[in-house]
Amino acid sequence: MIEVHLGDITRLQVDVIVNAANRHLSGGGGVDGAIHRAAGPELSEACREIGGCPVGEVRPTPAFSLPSKRIYHTVGPVWRGGNLGEPELLCSCYRHCLSLARREGMRSIAFPAISCGVYDYPAELAVEIAVEQVQEHLDRDSPPFEIVFCCFDEAMAELYRQQLDALVRR
């Protein structure tokens, strides 16, 4: 099941929330900062112990004060025109998160719009990749089975809805 949710990812009651992190896992603005603030100071300490995360990969932590079980920190690519491997790296973010969730036995996961904030990935292209990767995962019939695209504003939520509708019509 794929759902589009408009609201605050830190309030979702899912097994995993995905953080659109920076390479240092240091918290920042946008979703990353909101997750760090809501999870509490223990998250910053856990991230310091991990030491960082390469672009396209994922690093898990406990969720601390959040209603979820885990936080998966993934680092999306900075958009530089699309010819420097950005699509492959963004695909990798989704694949790694979904694969880790399956290995950890998680049944539900919520994604923000990875790389669509300060990393300037064009929203339409990022949404297409996100939906494609999630659908490929679900087609293999492996958990997590409940996937939420959590959007901060209506415009982004509408992009996800349109992409999901297009998928259904294929």
From TrEMBL:
Tree of life domain: Bacteria
Residue stretches spanning the membrane: none
Matching InterPro entries: Macro_dom (IPR002589), Macro_dom-like (IPR043472)
Family matches, as Pfam families: Macro
Record-annotated Macro domain positions: 1-168
Record SMART domains: A1pp
Record-given protein name: O-acetyl-ADP-ribose deacetylase
Organism: Microbulbifer flavimaris
Taxonomic lineage from the root: Bacteria, Pseudomonadati, Pseudomonadota, Gammaproteobacteria, Cellvibrionales
